[in-house]
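Notebook B, p. 112. Complex prediction, attempt 2.
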Amino acid sequence: MSATGINWFKYSSPQAFYPLAGRMIPWFAAVAVGVIAGGLYVGFFIAPTDVTQGDAYRIIFVHVPAAWMSMFLYVIMAIWAGIGLGLNARLSFMMAQAIAPTGAMFTFLALFTGSMWGKPTWGAWWVWDARLTSELILLFQYIGIMLLRSSIDDLRRADRASAVLALVGVINVPIIYFSVRWWNTLHQGASVTITAAPTMAGTMVTAMLVMMFGFWMYSFAVTLARMRCVIVERERQPSWGKPASIPDVAEAR
Amino acid sequence: MSQPSLSEALRGVVRRDLLLAMRHRSDVAMSVFFVVIVASLFPLGVGPEPAVLRTIASGVLWVTALLACLLSLGRLFTADYLDGVLEQTLLIPQPLAVLVVGKVFSHWVISGLPVVLLSPLLGLQFGLAGDSLWVLTLSLLLGTPTLSMIGAIGAALTLGLRGSGLLVALLVLPLFIPVLIFGAGAVSNSLAGIGSEANLSLLGACFLLSLAFAPWATAVALRIALE
Amino acid sequence: MQWGSVAEFFAMGGYGLYVWPSFGVAALCMGGEILAVWRKHAAALESHHDES
């Protein structure tokens, strides 16, 4: 996040991370609200009507950002899972735990809005093309990770088992991303790439990218909030007699 | 006694599992009967019209093989886990991943190989002929070991958990799907007259990939489950 | 501004039935998620309060 010479390990304990997260959430939330509002404004009032798809195309302003976030968040969750396994760091596992539900939500949203967009443009609510199928698999993977975690009572084993599962499933993400290039299927090819000029109208691309940034900020805020929640919940497994290390918890007690 | 070599340890694991399986020959029979019965359900449910059966053959037979693999995963580690042998296996100086390959191989010989050998007969039942029968057998030959290896990861992750049968299915089926798509695709392509080389090579690639990574992931999962 | 009237805006060129539920469900999901986390956090703190 920041590039200054912060001692990273200072924040690697839940006690230190909890108040830090609490301070960061309002900023991310405010930016998210502002950016999403701006993106919606550009998307609905400035971007023109599409020649081929009419106004139905405007669904992409929520569909594409949701799909990108679903993939981003999985990869980031897998990275935290890997760090957790490698460094045996509690906080990394908690971060992976906090990301999963948001990632699953965006995956569902991508599938739902994709369906909504597909009906008027392709004529079908669902097609079994490569990208849709692999996105569906991604949803199953998210759910599997969350189910595995909730099935294991021992916290340490739950952390590490769901971390392994997250890492094993990460291979699906490049498959989703490249599926439109590898398989000649219904889903349209990438219209925005890093190397080529976008094939969509400028304002459409702008709105889409702005919305994506907004979703990103939203994800930060919600994930950090869920982290705090997880920290408090785990504090519930105390060594008896030890005082609570999180101030809020100490207050509650 | 000098320390056994890697291949000796591997052979030891395989020999033990196969020996145990020989003493419970019903395990082999179970997989076979399951596949036969389930595959027979479809003509009974969908109707005996040959054209329809030929269309659904690739998918049905592949899904059946997949389910047979899934259901047999419970037998992979559970028995050893319950009687403490698995913990001892973890202490063997040889790399756990190699021992896992041994276990998965014997497991495949017991539950997967019979399905592969039976598949031409089942294919005939569904009206497949000639080339497609070969493609079916070959795709299953490449695919079922892959499924066993991927399934082993799920079995290791859910070791000893309550409701693990269903949980394993939920964890492992998303990972099975690419193999299913390539495998069934190979057969349906062959039926349609399009070449199935592409799908078969992709199956081969999946097999090699899983051989490279799955045993290692399984070993990690086993250590997590048993510590 | 390209919408002639509010009615046109809601009709979305005939695709309103697809566009608005999409954004609606998105808002519901995201809002619901925020609510769920907030309540879970409060419940977790509450359970600590009860414990001691």
